[in-house]
Every structure is written in structure tokens, then in C-alpha cells.
UniProtKB/TrEMBL annotation, chain A:
This is HypC/HybG/HupF family hydrogenase formation chaperone. Belongs to the HupF/HypC family. SUPFAM superfamilies: HupF/HypC-like (SSF159127). NCBIfam families: hypC_hupF. Signal peptide: none annotated. It comes from Streptomyces rugosispiralis.
UniProtKB/TrEMBL annotation, chain B:
Belongs to the HypD family. The gene is hypD. InterPro entries: Hyd_form_HypD (IPR002780), HypD_1 (IPR042243), HypD_2_sf (IPR042244). It holds the Pfam family HypD. This is Hydrogenase formation protein HypD. Gene3D superfamilies: 6.10.20.100, HypD, alpha/beta domain 2. It comes from the Bacteria. Keywords: Iron, Metal-binding. The keyword Transmembrane helix does not apply.
Length: 99, 373
């Protein structure tokens, strides 16, 4: 949750009077609120934190960050199943936690 | 050798490290405030690649770790009530309360749900009008605007079965408390980039000036952190103490003005207890009086919470940079991510968990780990 992840805006619509976007994070697509970045357009990249776009980002740095997050497993941690992870952490033997 | 190949751009990492090594003439210690940065530093071995005379002190910037035990216990109490749907970020599931955690409340039959965004919790409330839906709002200034917006929306749309348990924390008062502490060894700060994406950098010059500490705003990726350290070392060597923005691609000096105005409308600053550290004046946000009807603490009137912290846990000292995780007697034995005694062992942004995951059981500095080629 502490992570902010860059993603590409692929669609924009109004919902309950609030601008919302579909944002693609290297394959995972999520609903993101644009209330704090209303001027962003389809095709642009934004830094997104807990479902809210907080700043624009240029494409090159966005893609570099996404590649890094993918490589270190950060995207799984952000978008994966938290219950499964919590259960695994509660059961996994300590030896197996080393990678 | 062990780490540098993993960097996005090993040649650039090498140049930054050489520059740092060529600049430093005496020992310096600096604190990375943000837990995301701590995780990245340990994950990529940045502390071991740096010249030995530079010490990184891991700060209290993991919101999961510093959420006060009393607030966790209140969350657990509310989550266990019948008729309540308790929504939280996934990171909070295994944070130990005095006698259980949210994961346990769920297995005992509580309706605990993990949401990606607080707006998902509001949606749940709209779809289940006969349930009380509560969202647990924790986090720093990066997260607070999301919670502020959902409070704002709930009020605007008149969603009455929705409330928020709010425990937000703010970075500048924590920096202030750290530099004012008589034990403080921190000579420079790396400030958290995404906090500043929201807040901007204008809160920091007064701090840098009053306490004569360089403050360098930096990102979370290994190269960003190295660049932040490089700039902090330059300032220290030159006897300067300025605010520098080493993360301009995501941080503007004014921050995000829309977010700032919603934050001001929905929250007021309040004294906040940080788990393991104690109360820091003005270091938190709570819902403002206009939003009192949406405050879960008010709606559920939780009383009689008696908190119990394990005596052996030294997470408070870890969070202040006074001890390293492996210096705690319980580290890796009585306390592991599987059975955490303190919150710093739960979140991957917590220093204890980061040390454990990347096997920093004793962090011996050998020529091999310190070498960069
Ligand atoms: S290792 Fe565990 S018990 Fe020790 S300080 Fe860290 S969280 Fe607390």
C-alpha cells in the first residue's frame, strides 16, 4: 500500500460526478480516481497511489519504474491477493522466507 | 559485486558510488525517512555498497509500523462487531494488536475485507445499506488525500452507513521530533518523494534552516536513492543545509494543489502517538469537526481498550534509528514475519522485516559486500 505505481491512462469517464480512469499498470488494469489530476488525458502516465492519481510522469521514467517493479515482484505485492499472502506468511516456515 | 548488476543502469550506479566515495572525507549519518526507501536500500544492498563512513539510519516512515497500538486495538474491536464490514489495506491484516490481528478477526467470523482503494469501501457501503461499513485510514501524506476524498464523497453522496477510522501521520513533525531528540545522530535527511508529490517541498526549508540539516527529496528506486545520498553527502561536506529536490520528475515545489485543498477541508492536524515512539505534537491528521458524523471513533464509541506491547520488542528504538533490527534479542527467533511481535516485522517496509527477508542477520561488512565491481 505504501507504494505509488506509475500507470498509463487507457480510458476516462465520470462516475457519481467524479472523473475516473482505467489505468494500465504493466498489464494489470485498475479503476483510478482522477479528482487530483483532472487534466490528465488518455495515453498519459500518472503516479497512482491506493487508487488515486497524484502526479503526472513522463513515459520513459514510468516504463523504467514498471520494469523494475515487475522484476522485484513489487507489482504482485501491490495488486496480488492480500489474504493469500497473509495466510502464506502465517504458515510459511522461516527458512523458506529467504530468497 | 553482489548487488550492482541488479541496478537498472549499473554504469550510472557505479558513477554515483564513485562520486560519493570521492567526496566523502569523514563519517556521516543520514536517515531515510520513508519505509519504501528502507526496503529498497536493504533489498538492493545500497548500505553495503556505500563507503563505510556513511551510515544510513532507517527512519519511522512505515505507516503500518507506527500506527498506534490503541488504534489497532480499536480497529480489531470494531471489526469484530456484528453488522460491521471492516475494510482495510492488505498491509494491515497481520499487524499485531494487543491480543490478535485482523487476519484472526476474520477467521473468527468478522467481516474483514481488503480493498485496493478506499473508494472500493464506499462502493461496498452504497451496495449494502443495512451494514455499517468502516474504512481504516492509515498512512502518510501520500495516502491521506485518498481517504480525504472518500470522506468528501461519502458526505456529498449522503452515504450514512459509512465511516472512517483515521490514523494519519505527517512527516515534517516527525523529522522535527527526531532532530530535537538529545540522542539524535542524524545529520541529513532523505525525504520521501511521493509524500512531496502531494505536499510539495515548501514545509521543509524552515526545518533545514532551524536545525541546520540538509534535506534531500528523493525517490524509491536504487538510482534515485543513490543520487539523494550523493547530494546529501555534498551538502554535508560543504557545510550546507538546504532543501534539494532530487526527484523533480514526480515532485513540484507546490505539490498537488487540489489534494492540498481537500486535505485542508477534511482533516485537521492533531497530536498523534506513533507506535514505539510516543506522542509527537501536531504529527497527525484527524477528521475535522465538519466530518464528525463520518468518524468511526465517534460512531462506535470504543472504550476500555487496554493496550499491551511485548516487553522484549525494541521497535521504538529501531524506528528512531537507535538500534538496528538484528540487535534486538527477539529478531529472527521469537519474532519473525510469520509470528511478528512488533509492527516493524510485519510490513515489508518495516526495518525488521526488510532485514529478515534479505538475511541481514548480522550485516558483517566484508570487502566483498562493500566492493562495487
Ligand atoms: S525484531 Fe521483532 S521484537 Fe525485535 S524490535 Fe523488531 S519487531 Fe520488535
Amino acid at each position: 500500500m505504501c507504494l505509488a505505481v506509475p500507470g498509463r491512462v487507457v480510458g476516462i469517464e465520470k462516475r457519481d460526478g467524479t472523473p475516473m480512469a482505467r489505468v494500465d499498470f504493466g498489464g494489470v488494469v485498475k479503476d483510478v480516481c482522477l479528482a487530483y489530476l483532472p487534466e490528465i488525458e488518455v495515453g498519459e502516465y500518472a503516479i497512482v497511489h491506493v487508487g488515486f492519481a497524484i502526479q503526472r510522469l513522463d513515459e520513459e521514467s514510468a516504463l523504467a519504474t514498471l520494469r523494475l517493479f515487475e522484476r522485484i515482484g513489487a507489482l504482485d505485492e501491490e495488486f496480488g491477493d492480500a489474504w493469500a499472502r497473509a495466510a502464506a506468511e502465517a504458515e510459511r516456515a522461516p527458512e523458506e522466507e529467504n530468497r | 559485486m553482489k548487488y550492482i548488476d541488479e541496478f537498472q543502469d549499473p554504469a550510472l550506479a557505479r558513477r554515483l558510488l564513485d562520486d560519493i566515495a570521492g567526496t566523502v572525507t569523514r563519517p556521516w549519518s543520514m536517515m531515510e525517512v520513508c519505509g519504501g526507501q528502507t526496503h529498497s536500500i536493504i533489498r538492493h544492498g545500497i548500505d553495503q555498497l556505500l563507503p563505510e563512513s556513511i551510515e544510513l539510519i532507517h527512519g519511522p516512515g512505515c505507516p503500518v509500523c507506527v500506527t498506534p497500538l490503541e488504534m489497532i486495538d480499536k480497529a480489531l474491536e470494531i471489526a469484530a462487531r456484528p453488522g460491521v464490514v471492516f475494510c482495510s489495506f492488505g498491509d494491515m491484516l497481520r499487524v499485531p494488536g494487543s491480543d490478535r490481528d485482523l487476519f484472526r478477526v476474520k477467521s473468527d467470523g468478522g467481516d474483514v475485507r481488503v480493498v485496493y482503494s478506499p473508494l472500493d469501501a464506499l462502493r461496498i457501503a452504497q451496495q449494502a445499506p443495512d451494514q455499517q461499513v468502516v474504512f481504516f485510514g492509515v498512512g502518510f501524506e501520500t495516502t491521506a488525500p485518498a481517504i480525504a476524498m472518500v470522506a468528501h464523497q461519502a458526505r456529498r453522496l449522503g452515504v450514512r452507513n459509512f465511516s472512517l477510522l483515521v490514523s494519519h501521520v505527517r512527516v515534517p513533525p516527525a523529522i522535527e521530533a527526531i532532530v530535537r531528540s538529545p540522542d539524535c545522530r542524524v545529520q541529513a535527511f532523505l525525504a520521501a518523494g511521493h509524500v512531496c508529490s502531494v505536499m510539495g517541498t515548501l514545509e521543509y526549508p524552515a526545518l533545514a534552516d532551524t536545525h541546520k540539516v540538509p534535506i534531500v527529496v528523493t525517490g524509491f528506486e536504487p538510482l534515485d536513492i543513490l543520487e539523494g545520498i550523493r547530494r546529501a553527502v555534498r551538502q554535508l561536506e560543504r557545510g550546507e543545509h538546504r532543501v534539494e529536490n532530487a526527484y523533480p520528475r514526480a515532485v513540484r515545489p507546490q505539490g498537488n494543489p487540489v489534494a492540498l485543498s481537500v486535505l485542508r477541508e477534511v482533516f485537521t492536524t492533531t497530536d498523534r502517538a506513533w507506535r514505539g515512539i510516543g506522542t509527537i505534537p501536531d504529527s497527525g491528521w484527524r477528521l475535522s469537526d465538519a466530518y464528525r458524523d463520518y468518524d468511526a471513533e465517534h460512531r462506535f464509541e470504543v472504550t476500555g481498550v487496554a493496550t499491551v506491547e511485548p516487553a522484549v520488542c525494541r521497535s521504538g528504538e529501531v524506528l528512531q534509528g537507535l538500534v538496528k533490527p538484528h540487535e534486538c534479542a527477539a529478531f529472527g527467533t521469537a519474532c519473525t514475519p510469520r509470528a511478528p511481535l512488533g509492527a516493524t516485522m510485519v510490513s515489508s517496509e518495516g526495518a525488521c522485516a526488510a532485514y529478515y527477508l534479505y538475511r541481514r542477520l548480522a550485516t558483517p561488512r566484508t570487502e566483498e559486500t562493500a566492493s562495487v565491481d
